[in-house]
Amino acid sequence: MAIRMLSPDSDGGFRSEQVSLVLGSGYVLSFQEQQGDVFERIRERLRAGAGRLRTEGADYLFYALLDAIIDGYFAVIEVFGERIEGIEEEVVTEPDRETLQAIYALKRSLIALRRAVWPLRDVVAELERGESPLILDSTSSTSGTPTTTP
Length: 150
Fold this sequence. Notes:
Elements: E1 2-8, E2 14-24, E3 27-32, H1 40-48, H2 52-55, H3 58-93, H4 97-117, H5 120-129, H6 137-143
């Protein structure tokens, strides 16, 4: 499964990279384009040896990785919320040409965000159908299907 991993950048936008997750019988592989990711918390939990990540199967780890990627979307959405609030204040107090440029830049960024996130709908729909023999019913019911609605 290929999915976009998003993270805020220093310009108030976001970085996007493709992450591929492969679920096999008893293993999960992940492939990334860049170093640094949202999986560090999961690695720490695995190293600590506590919790369900150690006791459940590879399908549970797969769900946890997918959930971590989706959680990263919230950080990006938060940055956009802050940008919108800043522009809103400019529009009310001192609108100028730069304000209009900021609105257009925000619009372009939001379109790019939509393009990056849209394919996630297909990924979640596939998981909801539950057609994979590698994902146990108990995992999908206890983990919950990852959500695309932040």
